[in-house]
Write a structure and sequence with these properties.
Layout lengths: L2 H21 L3 E2 L5 H12 L4 E6 L9 E6 L11 E7 L9 H10 L7 E7 L2 E7 L3 H7 L2 E2 L2 E2 L1 E6 L10 E8 L4 H9 L3 H9 L3 E3 L2 E2 L12 E4 L3 E11 L5 E8 L1
Antiparallel strand pairs: 1-3, 2-3, 4-6, 4-9, 5-6, 7-8, 10-15, 11-12, 11-13, 13-14, 14-15
Helix pairs in contact: 1-2, 5-6
Length: 252
């Protein structure tokens, strides 16, 4: 996020907080990516008279909205403004992927911030969406890629939560530097990892990181463009030769 974009985002959050305080009611943002959630969390924690939670429809959701309310109200008791659009098609003719679904949805004219996680499966896709935009999308989404589709709008309670598929990787490294852990997570040499980092293709906790020397900690999430995502699950002490044992989880 550029400095200008972050400034506009913070101004939007400040306006929502002002509305909550003045009108004694709740407000919610559009769907935020993890980097935006980190900014919003830091902002709302320092705001007076404000409570907030994030909600993406299920605990492991990546894209989530922030629900903001007065401090005397529990945001968890506010009715969720989310719904689920279920998309089905005949997989004998075409198998759309995540990019196909997102492209088709945005082609209807909806903004990205009204769309949460897109969960794909065999002949079925679940799109978490702001409920107010659900009828429009259900009526206007007729095809994805080359596949004609049918749609059904369901309450959030109808969501089938996926089981994430991950691969556990154990390795030893000289130190918890970004280049070393990135190489271990994605099966690269450090000499190949370094130019990828310096070239802006790597994010740490959803923020671009171009310093190969960056020190990581347990819980940090790595994203490498074209390869996927991995998490530093644990730093588990040193070997007899002084190398660090690490455990990583890579999403498949």
């Amino acid at each position: 996020m550029t400095a200008k974009k972050e400034g506009l985002f913070l101004a939007h959050l400040a306006d929502l907080a002002r509305q909550v305080r003045q009108r004694h009611t709740f407000r919610f943002t559009g769907f935020l990516d993890p980097a935006e959630q980190a900014i919003a969390s830091a902002f709302f924690r320092q705001e007076r008279d404000i409570n907030f939670i994030f909600n993406g429809g299920y605990p492991e959701a990546e894209r989530r909205i922030a629900i903001i309310c007065p401090d005397y109200q529990d945001p968890a008791t506010i009715e969720s403004p989310l719904a689920v659009l279920v998309i089905t098609w005949n997989e004998r003719f075409h198998q759309p992927n995540h990019r196909d679904f997102l492209g088709a949805i945005l082609a209807t004219g909806l903004r990205r911030e009204v769309i949460g996680d897109i969960i794909t499966g065999n002949s079925r896709c679940q799109v978490i969406i702001l409920a107010e935009s659900g009828p429009f999308l259900a009526n206007n989404l007729t095809s994805v890629g080359r596949a004609p589709v049918t749609t059904a709008l369901e309450p959030l309670s109808g969501l089938e939560i996926p089981t994430p598929k991950t691969k556990v990787i154990t390795a030893t490294v000289a130190s918890p530097r970004l280049d070393a852990l990135l190489a271990a997570a994605f099966g690269l040499s450090r000499s190949k990892a370094v130019p990828l980092i310096k070239g802006g293709q790597v994010k740490v906790n959803w923020r671009e990181e171009t310093n190969p020397d960056c020190q990581l900690a347990a819980g940090d999430v790595l994203s490498l463009r074209g390869y996927g995502r991995a998490k530093v699950a644990a730093l588990e002490g040193t070997t007899r030769k002084g190398r660090l044992n690490v455990k990583l989880e890579r999403w498949l």
